[in-house]
Design goal:
single chain, alpha+beta, Lipocalin, 8-stranded antiparallel β-barrel, 48% helix
Length: 470
């Protein structure tokens, strides 16, 4: 598996559980904010959507960065005093991170990657098609003389939302008002808005809601959210988050628009009247435009408009603080754990498994016992307690030995980096560069961490495999 495929597989593995956790935390935060203006819940869901991409992507970058540092260490021939628990399978954080290797058969990995690629292509083509449809609808819209009532309502809404002129165009391809455009947004209105069939309250409700979209720059922001969703569209909870973003966006616009009418009851009544007119005339074709009834949650919107809440400023601040704490704790907790795709060459790792002995004058002074478990190479080491440099060769100075544990390994082809220590708090681990020179033969060099001025080891140690137990 090449690097890009491995990164994608790592992204997908971690996204599966991380997005689930993110959706749960976002749901909890939204519930805590249910008595507050909908814009706060909307922001929580937006942050959740961004986290669905950024947290798995960060996991990939951290694992790749850790692996790169180890590879550079091997090429440089020295270890730059990295902490013992620094590992390509975890996060380089002050606390101990947890990483679990996952082994996938090569065929299954390829099937999953191809399925993800096809789904990504399908969603991208669909998004491009909606963008094309929106562009065509915008091009087909035309200017039309505004009735006096419509013109007065539009001017009043523009002043209320502190907006410059927003063109009002007539379109035969929309059944309800819709906002379109990036830098110069326009408002598309169906023909019924130009015939004088709607009351001033109906016009105020519809136009103020759409001008709220313009004020909030929802058209551009929604495109950003769609681009983010495109990368995680395989996950059902990402679709749920996307739907909540759309729903809370409409609620937030309703809450801004209701100020243009005498009461929430007037606004709700106008929405119902407009909806009856829209749905009796049939639905328009799908497009990317932000329409008045795109989310199909009219009943929930009516309930939200009519509800009355009196939340004190002190309680509001407490809720905000609580949500911030929850979001921070959730992000930190999710960051602690990660899944790592076990080396595709797990079979190749077995080339290092077994019992290896290095002898000096016919007597072993360094013994390694290594085995592969869950795609990870580990084991124990027994070595001389004191060594010395003699003419570029490192030799044992005593027959006394001590047992240690292999804490970290990183394989690349026929080379292996090994870190050995007697415990997780050992400040002076032993690092070995291990290279296969034959089926049962290895050359190894000691990598000195604490003595950068120590003479280089010109003559490598020669290890012989004495047992193939894996």
């Amino acid at each position: 598996m090449n690097d890009i495929s491995r990164w994608l597989a790592t992204f997908l593995l971690n996204a599966i559980w991380q997005i689930t956790a993110i959706a749960i935390f976002a749901f909890v935060c939204a519930k805590l904010l249910h008595r507050m203006p909908s814009r706060y819940a909307h922001r929580a869901w937006v942050l959740a959507m961004l986290a669905c991409l950024l947290i798995p992507l960060t996991t990939v970058l951290i694992q790749h960065s850790a692996g790169t540092r180890i590879a550079e260490t091997k090429r440089a021939g020295s270890v730059l005093n990295e902490p013992l628990n620094s590992s390509p399978r975890g996060l380089s954080l002050p606390f101990r991170s947890v990483s679990h290797p996952i082994s996938l058969p090569p065929l299954l990995s390829r099937v999953l990657l191809w399925a993800f690629a096809l789904l990504l292509l399908h969603r991208a083509v669909r998004l491009l098609w909606l963008a094309y449809r929106t562009s065509r609808i915008r091009q087909c819209a035309y200017e039309r003389g505004l009735p006096e009532s419509l013109s007065e309502v539009a001017e009043r809404c523009l002043r209320a939302f502190s907006l410059s002129a927003v063109p009002l165009l007539c379109s035969t391809e929309v059944s309800s008002p819709a906002t379109v455009g990036f830098r110069r947004p326009v408002l598309l209105l169906p023909e019924s808005f130009f015939t004088g069939d709607l009351t001033r309250d109906d016009l105020s409700s519809a136009l103020s809601h759409e001008f709220a979209h313009v004020r909030r720059r929802d058209f551009v922001l929604n495109l950003l959210y769609e681009m983010v969703y495109l990368t995680v569209c395989f996950h059902p909870f990402a679709a749920f988050i996307r739907s909540r973003i759309a729903h809370t966006r409409e609620l937030a616009c309703d809450e801004m628009a209701v100020r243009m009418l005498p009461s929430g009851a007037h606004y709700a009544s106008s929405l119902l009247h407009i909806a009856q007119s829209v749905f009796s005339g049939g639905q328009s074709q799908s497009s990317y435009a932000l329409g008045l009834f795109d989310t199909n949650t009219l009943e929930e919107r009516i309930v939200n408009i009519l509800k009355t809440t009196n939340v004190s400023r002190k309680w509001t601040r407490a809720l905000r603080l609580l949500v911030v704490v929850l979001v921070g704790a959730a992000a930190l907790g999710i960051s602690v754990f990660s899944l790592q795709l076990a080396a595709e060459n797990a079979t190749d790792l077995r080339q290092f498994a077994g019992t290896w002995e290095c002898k000096y004058k016919g007597r072993p002074f360094f013994t390694l016992k290594m085995a592969v478990k869950d795609g990870v190479l580990g084991g124990t080491a027994v070595h001389s307690t004191r060594v010395s440099w003699v003419d570029g060769e490192i030799i044992p100075m005593t027959d006394e030995t001590t047992p240690d544990k292999i804490f970290d390994t990183h394989a690349s082809g026929q080379e292996l980096m090994i870190k050995i220590a007697d415990g997780p708090n050992d400040s002076d681990p032993i690092a070995l560069s291990f290279k296969l020179t034959g089926k049962d033969e290895v050359e190894a060099k000691l990598i000195v961490e604490k003595q950068p001025n120590a003479p280089p080891q010109k003559k490598p140690w020669h290890f012989q495999r004495v047992s193939n137990t894996q």
